[in-house]
Amino acid sequence: MYIKQGHEEYLHNNDLKVRGPLAKYWTNTRVVELCLVEDLKYATHSGSGESCCEMTLNFIGSSSKVQGQKFLLTLPDLDDSDTPDFLVERGWYDASMERNWSSRDKCQVWWTNPGGRDGSWWKGRSQSVNDQSNEFPGSPWKIFSVQYKNDEEEFNHCPWELHDPAHLFEHSHIDRDRRKKMLSSFRKLLPSGPNKEDNYGILKLEQIAQKSDFINRFPVPLSLDIIEKRLEKNYYRRMEALKYDINVMLSNAQSYFDGNRTFSKKMKNLSHWFDELFLELE
Questions:
Q1: Residues with Cβ < 8 Å from 95, sequence gap 6 or more?
Q2: What angle separates helix 224-232 from helix 176-189, to the nearest 10 degrees?
Q3: Is residue 205 classed as helix, strand or coil in its secondary structure?
Q4: Which end of the chain has fewer surrounding CB within 10 Å, N or C?
């Protein structure tokens, strides 16, 4: 789900303006639009050189005036706690709206620690429910004012930021059996035995993953270790996302060792190995 007011806040906070195709139909865009991410890739932000995510959004709501319209969206860091979450998974959005939060309801909100790593749940109560702007009537953006325990200040939150332990929402994810199969297969890739023949270039991949020139060269320097940890934490919601990260990892490695025929052959072997594994899991 695309939340127009949240996008406007993001643009304002970063001194940006609505550009391209979106500018043409901005006035016809509703406060909430159903959209589909049609394309996504990791890239390097021009100017800063920092990693970013480029995606193509397609509005697909059947009753929307902008149905079928597409635009390119670039976000600097999806893990940045200061980036407004104006793109919300539909299932999560629907569940948060159906929860029908009201004043004085107890809730918990996840606050990420500075630097974007880890965080903790903060307990509080919803104090009021109000639109944040007359420009976006009916928008769910930050309509709840929440006061935390032992804190007099109130903070505005969106419905999907509020958590109710009594009404747990389970995000979509790769099913358990396929995830276990993937993890088991990953661990078999590591060379073993007295000769330790590295037919898939795994040892080399592990080595370059620690090198600064590799880490700084690519927007997202993915490694088997990172992908394995993401699998362990149930990070991937669809197999397509896992396939995408694996392809990025292989592409990065091929680019890093450009011209090395031996390593290139091993990457082709590894790519074929993954293709066969995904076929088994279909």
A1: 167, 169
A2: 150
A3: helix
A4: C
pLDDT tens per residue across span 93-150: 999 999 888 888 999 998 887 766 678 899 999 998 888 888 999 999 999 999 998 8
CA distances from 102 to 97, 99, 200, 261 (A): 11, 9, 56, 63
**Best CATH choice for the domain 176-281 from the list 1.10.150.130, 1.20.920.10, 3.40.50.450, 1.10.3470.10:** 1.20.920.10
Give me Rg for the CA atoms of the chain: 22
> Residue type for 228, please?
E
Domain borders along the chain are 1-87, 96-171, 176-281
Taking the C-alpha atoms of residue 274 and residue 109, their distance in angstroms, rounded to an integer, is 39
In this predicted model, what pLDDT tens digit does every residue of 45-67 receive, in sequence order?
766 667 788 899 999 999 999 99
| Those residues with Cβ within 8 angstroms of residue 26's Cβ, 6 or more apart along the chain or in another chain | 18
C-alpha to C-alpha distance for 227 and 186, rounded to whole angstroms: 10
Query: Cα 190 from chain centroid?
Result: 28
Residue 67 tokens read as: 């149905």
pTM of the model: 0.81
Q: In this structure, what token pair is assigned to residue 261?
A: 């025929």
Residue 88 contacts residue 113 (beta carbons within 8 Å): no
CATH topology of domain 96-171: SH3 type barrels. (2.30.30)
- Beta pairing partners, 224: none
- Inter-axis angle of helices 261-281 and 239-256, nearest 10: 170
Contact 182, 236 (CB under 8 A): no
Cβ pair 107, 124 in contact under 8 A: yes
Residue with tokens 């630097």: 115
